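Figure 6 in text form: structure in, sequence out.
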């Protein structure tokens, strides 16, 4: 395994922040992960794990080893009449996996088409889009313990999935490096087309009877229209999570803001954070090269040479406005790395 020094992370984070890692390596196997851990222990270096860097805010140069997880491979490990269990290397590109499952008549991931990033990062925040979350197709994952080097299997319950959340963002944060994810996919599609504009998009595509491929295509087309492409404008997708509040609090806010957008989820209501931000006047805001996207206020953007501090400064101001106007707290979705930030 090769360790590079003073390595630029600019092409490895979707915001395009121009920071460096003191050391960089790419892990193609579980042995490589263990070699990297040994390297860090022997040299007393911190370790930062990266997939494709599409959900991180890198504030400054990293004074340790940045390890890219590049483990590849897909294997069907079990099947019955209705389902297939597919084990996938953590370094596989998520959207390529979605396409591969559709080409192989395996279903469940179609609404998660075109989410950037790797398979190994998907359980970290239980990726979700268009009414579906990873947890619906998740079976288990294998991860190397950062302390002992031991390979541990986590089943679904142990991952404690929530909305953009898992145990790996909470109690087990930075404790494990995911090497493989096993998904349980259906042999027959159960299409979910009720969310957002999927149905309208299918109609505009001329689809009369939808199948899983056309749903994935519809989701991809909507996403391409609504979200800035990080290859063109740096961003990390939604910068904030949608706040989840009680029906009572929702009703209180509704008195003053009858148009507020909220989706009932059992005892709670999920509020569209983008709407809150837009109401506070931030949509399309720009200060030098840092800003808020002009089509989607939930997405903070780097137009070229912004650094993470400029983006975080705007994020902080947005949080204050939303707090002042709605008495609601916004939570940052991507993981922020920098001195003094956990
Ligand atoms: C344009 C755009 C749109 C997006 N849309 C969505 C969306 O619709 N839904 C959604 O949920 N997310 C969305 N995201 C966020 C992002 O795509 C997901 O969070 C994705 O899973 C991140 O994958 P990654 O490989 O880039 O992870 P990274 O950004 O590299 O890492 C994210 C975190 O996971 C950790 N991590 C990564 N890999 C591993 C591993 N193998 N083992 C242990 N820890 C690991 C990292 O240390 C880091 O803390 C979007 C991002 C962008 C840029």
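Output sequence:
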């Amino acid at each position: 395994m090769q360790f590079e020094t003073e390595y630029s992370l600019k092409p490895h984070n979707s915001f395009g922040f121009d920071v460096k890692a003191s050391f960089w390596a790419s892990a193609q196997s579980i042995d490589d992960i263990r070699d990297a851990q040994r390297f860090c222990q022997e040299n007393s270096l911190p370790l930062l794990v990266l997939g494709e860097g599409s959900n991180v805010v890198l504030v400054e140069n990293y004074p340790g080893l940045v390890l890219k997880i590049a483990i590849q491979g897909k294997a069907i490990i079990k099947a019955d009449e209705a389902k297939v269990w597919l084990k996938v290397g953590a370094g596989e590109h998520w959207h390529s996996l979605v396409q591969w499952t559709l080409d192989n008549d395996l279903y469940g991931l179609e609404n998660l088409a075109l989410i950037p990033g790797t398979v190994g990062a998907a359980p970290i925040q239980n990726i979700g889009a268009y009414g579906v979350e990873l947890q619906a197709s998740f079976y288990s994952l294998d991860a190397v313990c950062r302390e002992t080097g031991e390979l541990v299997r986590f089943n679904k319950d142990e991952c404690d999935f929530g909305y953009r959340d898992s145990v790996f963002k909470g109690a087990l944060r930075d404790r494990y490096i995911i090497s493989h994810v096993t998904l349980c996919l259906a042999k027959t599609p159960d299409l979910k087309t009720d969310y957002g504009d999927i149905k309208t998009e299918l109609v505009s595509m001329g689809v009369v009877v939808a199948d899983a491929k056309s749903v994935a295509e519809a989701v991809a087309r909507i996403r391409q229209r609504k979200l800035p492409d990080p290859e063109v404008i740096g961003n990390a997708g939604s910068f904030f999570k949608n706040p989840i509040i009680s029906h009572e609090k929702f009703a209180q806010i509704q008195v003053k803001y009858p148009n507020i957008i909220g989706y009932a989820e059992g005892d709670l209501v999920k509020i569209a954070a983008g709407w809150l931000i837009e109401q506070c006047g931030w949509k399309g805001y720009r200060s030098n090269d840092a800003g808020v996207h002009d089509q989607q206020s939930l997405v903070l953007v780097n137009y070229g040479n912004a650094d993470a501090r400029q983006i975080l400064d705007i994020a902080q101001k947005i949080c204050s406005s939303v707090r002042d106007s709605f008495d609601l707290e916004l939570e940052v979705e991507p993981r922020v790395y920098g001195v003094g930030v956990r």
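Caption detail: The chain has a mean pLDDT of 96.
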